[in-house]
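FAQ
Q: What does a multi-component entry look like?
A: The components come first, one per line:
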Amino acid sequence: MGRYAPGALRSFVAEALHRGGAFWEEAELVADALVCADLRGVHSHGVVRSAVYLKRLQAGSIRAGADLSVVHDAGAAVVCDAGSGFGVVAAARAMDLAVERAARYGVGAVGVRNSNHCGMLAYFTLREVARGAVGVALSNANAQVAPFGARTRYFGTNPISVGIPGGEEPPVVLDMATSEVAHGRVRAAALRGEPIPRTWALGPDGRPTTDPHEALRGALLAFGGAKGSGLALVVDVLAGLLTGAGSGPEITPLYEELDRPQGVGHLMVALWPDAFCGLSTLRGRVDRLVREVRALPPAEGFDRVWLPGEMEHRRDAEARRMGVGLPEESVLALQEVARAVGLRAPEALA
Amino acid sequence: MGRYAPGALRSFVAEALHRGGAFWEEAELVADALVCADLRGVHSHGVVRSAVYLKRLQAGSIRAGADLSVVHDAGAAVVCDAGSGFGVVAAARAMDLAVERAARYGVGAVGVRNSNHCGMLAYFTLREVARGAVGVALSNANAQVAPFGARTRYFGTNPISVGIPGGEEPPVVLDMATSEVAHGRVRAAALRGEPIPRTWALGPDGRPTTDPHEALRGALLAFGGAKGSGLALVVDVLAGLLTGAGSGPEITPLYEELDRPQGVGHLMVALWPDAFCGLSTLRGRVDRLVREVRALPPAEGFDRVWLPGEMEHRRDAEARRMGVGLPEESVLALQEVARAVGLRAPEALA
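Then the predicted structure of the entire assembly, as tokens:
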């Protein structure tokens, strides 16, 4: 796994998207979000996605320079139309607006319709945390997951992220798909010809399968059975139906029909701690909770207890020191992007 | 399982709590919430709890006539102190306030500190749905669940409920503990001398156990591994730390130290559909989603696909027609309550 300078990756992705038609402001924001994911070791949502974003940009399904326009403004709740712009840009702006409203009213909720794939949700909840808010981000996605008890797809992988500011401790950042695993992990197993656990997916016959090829023709399973499936539904309703965006089956998959906007929806919620117990009190209490949980005796088979987002925070710190390690798939995507726009791909650090 | 008239159960519980010192208004609200749970077949949160509520009321840890006083009011977000009153009453009033603020600002979030066990969360989200809002209810609870990777308890069973208004279809109501199962199910297995699945709990040695007695001395497991554990943490932070309530390890268990207030926290959030896509649009889209999901072909081992809360809705309809079936444990609790306050316990329908 070669290592890369974070700034070089950001510059490259931004320049490439700019050559593809993106405004500088949005190109740099998308580049920052993708590199943030790689820094945290979440490579599935890192620069590897720049290739498909570029294709959608060039095909017009991601519209350059789209504004996040306000459709309805009730004060603490706002609904926006992303105008088929970059999902990352719409989600970041919506999040900033949610924080602004939370600072004024104690809580802010911003719904987004007509958006596209917005990448790693932790990017947005970390943004809220940096401003001293508690952040909740939901996004829906195209149908890939079978509702509990069904054999066919309906829900997206519909992720949920919650960011909580710490004091001396790093923030707690939960960021999880409501599917048992991401689609990419099944695809990776298929490429490597390896079996998958029976808890990941159903085949086209509606039975749990260990064959990743069968799984790709079938449906992913929600995590945690009926409960995870219920949460996937809730995300589809809150981020999709309520905001006026598409629901799972109406959303265009990221890698198909590249000239067609996806119609993804997001819901960003910010809670302003000073409207509750106070930010400094919250920071102190979160620090204590984090330290107490981390110090619990580990269960059999574990070395220690990790807080949500703690491992990603460590990887981020290491990558900022040592450079960002990129898996082969990401390197290949960067090379593809470089060829498409006539740039030189970033080179690994010596 | 004997059947009872719902109104007779409500009258009995209200009268008993009134004799225990509760004001009529709160006694009737608690009675309605408990019977609502039994109507829905959620007997673990039904009239069976009237016995411990009465004991706590008589011991002073549930304070009769407590107001829900506003500690801080930021407009859309409000923090309240329940004054150690009935959790059910505090949660219901907080929910009503959240809906009121949502109608004004688009979203409302009401945190509650110094509260007690509030029973089945679906009671409150159904309340929001009846007023045309989307409702989210969170409550924390005393430490019973081991964080993912730990061998000892820290989080409560920290439930989450989300209520979504339908149109012609009944509302979708998710209501789930973030533990794999409720503590009561382990206790029931211990009483019957039956083994439990290895996914439910750890023994005191930190290993998954099938022995319910070992489990009771150990810790429950979160549902869905690290993800469910992360959600349990989020509920503890949002309902507990942020509101200024206790966190898991600080909360007094419902059935221990009966003279000590529990210090539970709740967070009630309401989203006002007319601030988003509009209530009638939402109702129509939810109906369509419900019908599409219900009509999906079932997976192996399933007869059909059920929506969250749909089975409870059916049981409710049946119980309203036929009377409420009560399990033996509930009947015994009613008899205990009757003896304690000098009332006749309700009689089963002939």
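Q: Is there any commentary attached?
A: Sometimes. For this entry: The first strand of chain A starts at residue 3 and ends at 4.
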